[in-house]
Amino acid sequence: MANEIPVRRRHLITRLKQLRLSSGLTQDDVSGAMGWDRGKIHRLEQGRFKRINAADVVALCGLYKASDEEKDALAEIAKQSRKSSWWYRYSDVFAGPFIGLEAEALTIEGFNNSLVPGLFQVPEYIQALIEPALDVTVPRDEVQTRIDVRLQRQRSVLDRKNPPHIWLILDESVLRRQVGGVEVMRTQVRHLREMTERPTIDIQVLPFSAGAHAASGFQFTTLGFEGSDRVVYIETDRDGLYLEEPEQIRRYTLVFDRLQATAMSVEDSARFMDAVVS
Length: 278
Description:
The chain has 278 residues and is of the alpha/beta class. The chain has two domains: 7-80, 434 Repressor (Amino-terminal Domain) (Orthogonal Bundle), CATH 1.10.260.40; 98-277, Endonuclease, Chain A. It is built from twelve helices and six strands. It starts with 6 loop residues before the first helix and ends with a helix. InterPro entries: Cro/C1-type_HTH (IPR001387), DUF5753 (IPR043917), Lambda_DNA-bd_dom_sf (IPR010982). This is Transcriptional regulator with XRE-family HTH domain. GO terms for molecular function: DNA binding.
């Protein structure tokens, strides 16, 4: 996997580039301000450095006028990325790296066993998910903001110029669980069905009749990038795990292949969704 960029370094590179663009600076501007040769910032943003110096990260954050919190978080990632580890937690980075990785992925493969994945949730469904947490972990005045942010995330991935190819396998319980009630679920399942009409989206349903299967008890998402670079994301209640070792990638690729073989075909799954909302 010669082209592989570990997830820690990929997130760091992506965020530094976003900060540069937000600051309105070109790569030449940065090279001049930092006293670097013209190719260094280009190589850094292309992921061609195996290790990124934490001092460079701090200096770039200062140039880009990043907050102290983000500067410290990114510098820590630069330090940690030098360590050999097959997973990494990003609880110290606002919103985590998943959204940034998702926005750059060329392929997204996922298995969901209880809820519709965020990229495909309609507003009513999102609100129904938030309601049980009101005044506990979610302030009431943040509800609409959270809905808007999730919809913006959907547009940034699904409606971009070259959207990723997405292959989802949904446990039947995802379609049967009454999140928000019957009408909300009808709207939600219709939306999923409409999404299957896009040439870059395939959805399979894993029926209850399949019984035990290769992913019983867990769900995961695999993000594919240029070359053979892939990352497996396993969501947890706080931040999530990012798997990047070849052995781990192979394991989850095999699990996904077995789920595909066990689930209904794409065509039968579309008919199944039609029947659910009829």
